[in-house]
Specification:
One of its GO terms (biological process) is regulation of phosphorelay signal transduction system. The chain has about 200 residues and is of the alpha/beta class. It is about 30% helix and about 15% strand. It has one domain (about 10-195): Rossmann fold, CATH 3.40.50.
Length: about 200
Amino acid sequence: MSLLIPPSQLWLCRHGETEWSLSGAHTSRTDIPLTDNGREKAVELGAYLKDTPFAAVFVSPMHRAKETCRIAGLIDNAYIDEGLMEWNYGIYEGKTTKEIREEVPGWSVWKDPIYEGETAEQVGERADDVIARALEAGGQQGGGNVALFAHAHILRILAARWIGLPAKGGALFGLGTGSVSVLGWERETRVILHWNRGFGG
């Protein structure tokens, strides 16, 4: 790649708080709205992003992600990307880790089978595809930033894949609701520039 023009950065925006994210329930295909606090944090997220130009905006099709993107002021030209759907938790949808561990001691989404859902590797393949589309949309040689509005686990896995870790490496990256993280470059090497910037409360 040419190093005369900085390549694209990917800005990862996790949706605002929902009742299920507040309780710790695994939320994938269940389409629930933001809480009042989630909407407030989306306003703060938008204020933080307003001075950053974006060549493209990608958003998960789920309401909580689209609503965060809308409140942040970036929905008008956003591309709905199915690849940004949250990890399909199968039979564990709507359950907290504590509840699951009552049935499966020591259970972890990162190491145990997800029955009727996706493996971490399958989510990683989706993340790889999103990265490719985002870099194309941003113009890797042209330095266009791309915002991605999505969910905790898909964004954690996307970050892991960005720096060459396996999908399960996403376990190493905590990510709060309404947060923003930035993936970029140090010369030709993919790096994490900023991670999990939150907005209080």
